[in-house]
Structures are given as structure tokens and as C-alpha cells.
Design a protein that fits this description.
Blueprint lengths: L6 E2 L19 H10 L2 E6 L2 H11 L4 E6 L7 H20 L8 E4 L4 H8 L10 H20 L4 E4 L9 H15 L2 E2 L9 H11 L20
Parallel strand pairs: 1-4, 2-3, 2-5, 3-4, 5-6
Helix pairs in contact: 2-3, 2-7, 5-6
This protein binds iron/sulfur cluster.
Length: about 220
Amino acid sequence: MRNKTENRARSTDARIGVRDDGERMPNLAEMRETEKRKPGILVHSCCGPCSVAVMERLSGEYDVTLFFFNPNITDGEEYEKRLRAQRTAVEKFNAWEYASGRVTLVVGPYEPERFLARARGLEAAPEGGARCARCFEMRLEKTAEYAALYSFERFTTTLSVSPHKDYSLLAKIGAGLALRYGMRFLADDFKKRAGYERSVALSKAFGLYRQTYCGCPFSRRAPGG
Ligand code: SF4
């Protein structure tokens, strides 16, 4: 049976797929066993609240692995708060009587300096502008890299749950990366079919922390997430 224990990459190590909790990734044979039951998908997760609606929507059809990779949250305390909320979201979802599948959580490296370098020169850009495009690319590219390394055939992101995020831009970035890494991007605007409202309702039911701004220091001036 596939190990569902949360895995965490070393925060000080920029390589992906490196663990600091003694857990190991399932080997290829174990992953293929899983695939026989349901196709696997790696889902980039921006936060616990957005992820719950996506876990609910996808876990019946796919074997879902969440990938928490958000170096855009440069404030370390805020990052830890959101990571705690993410862990709680997965624990509560996996224990939830209505869940149609269990979800694995992988935590990527925390590299705020990488985000700040990407955002240089675009600090004053409005939310939804050029800085956000670079931020999406950075998070989705790491997700695609991880997906390729661990033989996932498809990936997607919870970012489209938020009404503040440009779905067509996310879909374009995802499609480009899918081509580059030889896999599929599941293009689904998760805010549609009341996905955003569902994320609010489920995060209330699970008692999750909900952030009041998108994540980077430049987004503190406007609410988002
Ligand atoms: S506003 Fe949000 S999406 Fe845009 S750069 Fe900041 S953290 Fe990234």
C-alpha cells in the first residue's frame, strides 16, 4: 500500500525530492500499483483553504498528491501559519467521512530569496500583473520538475480557486510546462462550479486559518489569496 505519510523536502536544500523526516518516496513499482487503481496527479497547492475544494473535486477520480511550494510567502511566520493550515487541511480531509480518496502531502523547499529575485523590478506592479505571472511560473515550474522526477503523468494547481487569479494565464503557463516536461496539465478553473464558495465552506468546517493577503510582501496592500 502506498505510504501516505507527509513528506518534507529539506528547507535548506534547493534540490527537490530530498526528505528530512526519514520517509521515502514510493518506488516506481509502488507508484505503478497505485496507478492501476487511479491515475496519479501532482497538485501544486497554494494554501490549505484552496486545496480542500480541489481535494474534494479530484480525489474520486485521481490519486492526489499535493505539492506545497510557495516561496512567495517571504514572511517566515506567515509561511509557517499557512503550512500548518495545509497540514491540518490534509489531516482533516483524510479523516473526513465524505472524502472519496486519501491525499498525500509533499512540502517543497522554502526559498523566499528565489521569489524576491524573480520579482525584482516588479515590486510595484499591481496584483494580477507581470509579477504574478513570474510567481505562477516559478511555482508551476517546480511542480512540473517534481512531477517529472517522480513519474507523475499530469499536474495542476489550486491557484485557480481564487477569484483574484487569472485562469487563462495559469492554463497557458501550465500547458507550456507540460510540453517542456512531457506530461499533461489538467486545465481546470477550480473556482467554477462554486469551487471558491466550497473552499470557504470546507475551510470553515475544518477550522482552517484563512490568510487576508495573497502572500508576497507587495500584496499586503491589497486583499487576495
Ligand atoms: S500578489 Fe500573489 S501571485 Fe502575485 S506575486 Fe505576490 S504572491 Fe505571487
